[in-house]
Amino acid sequence: MVKASNMGKATQLPDEFSPSMVFVRNLAYTVDSEKLLKAFEDIGPIKTCFVVADKVTKKSRGFGLVHFALREDAEKARAQLTGKVIEGRRITVEQAKRRTPEEIRKGKRRREEEHTEETSEPKDEADDSNDSGQQDSSGAGPAQETVQKSKRTKKERSVNEELAKAGKTVVLSGLTDGITKQHVYKRCKKIGPVDEVTLQTDNSALVVYNSHKDARLAISKLNGHIFKGSKIEAVLKTRIRDNVQSDPSKKHKRHRIILRNLPFTCSEVKLRKLLASVGPLEDFQFVLNETTKKFKGFCFAQFENPFHAAEAIERLNGKPLDGSGRKIAVDWTVSKKVYEELKKTKQENVKTEEKEKDDDDDDD
């Protein structure tokens, strides 16, 4: 029987790492070696298992090491247990490897900063009155600067965790009405383990997979897939986030088209489905009158790549929609200023052609 190392001791990492060893990161500080062993023992035979403790405080440093008897079991642990929640924290399991000197120095600095923040206390007002009255010109001493740096480190860590989750989150859009969370979960779990499903109000859903690999596999399998009678789009949440943050005011409009002369009775859902059948959409705007809230007869669509946008123009421009006999106009979007200039140039060209025609008639 494998015995887990005592948490009270400052366990040392081995000099060399075997391919059958894995690092377990982001452990809750309440998790000891015994709890870590229970979480991993179902994978396969374990030689050693321990949570690494601080040499001074004897408290957990938030990570541990598991040495399996077989390399295959270590690979299975990385595949199956990454993302598992243990006592409220989602762990990361990765191949154990020796850190570089630079990584060791960074880790040491981070622990010193965290220790300073825990032990630093605000000065008592009575003590302030006994001071000589001298103060650092910057208004903050070394201890306060260390605390502020530690807070920045925690904030950066939180942002990194958010980005890591977004990288495993698939956004499904174009879902039909009546689709439930259970419907989405059953379909998506066929691709890989799903941690969370959230339905949105715009006929879309957020699906958080257990791993980045499964999320990317889901994109390839679900994008353009017919689900419950509707062709859906699948894209990583990080891609949407990057597009919005790159230019919040313009949203990267190079692949944007406008559809005009649409029937006023046109359905937003049907129009979105029609465009999604051409290619994945990044944005869709169904323009309504601000007062009456009725459709104004035109909309904007932004595709992920220019080829799908060009295909939509070729396929839909000058064609009737829903058998209404009303031909719609589809073209690339331009700014209002450019549109007015193009319109003016077109009118001038028409006048020039008419004048040349009249001159030809006079010559005859």
Summarize the structure in words.
- The structure is a single chain.
- With 364 residues, the chain is α+β, with helices and mostly antiparallel strands.
- It has helices spanning 33-40, 71-81, 101-119, 125-130, 142-166, 181-188, 212-222, 237-246, 268-276, 306-316, 336-363; strands spanning 21-25, 46-53, 60-68, 85-86, 89-90, 92-95, 169-173, 194-199, 204-209, 226-227, 230-231, 233-236, 256-260, 281-288, 295-303, 329-332.
- The strands form 5 sheets. A 4-stranded antiparallel β-sheet has the order 2-3-1-6, with helices on one face.
- A hairpin with a 2-residue loop joins strand 10 and strand 11.
- Helix 3 crosses helix 5 (142-166).
- It is elongated, with a radius of gyration of 31 Å.
- The N and C termini lie far apart (110 Å).
- 21% of the residues are buried.
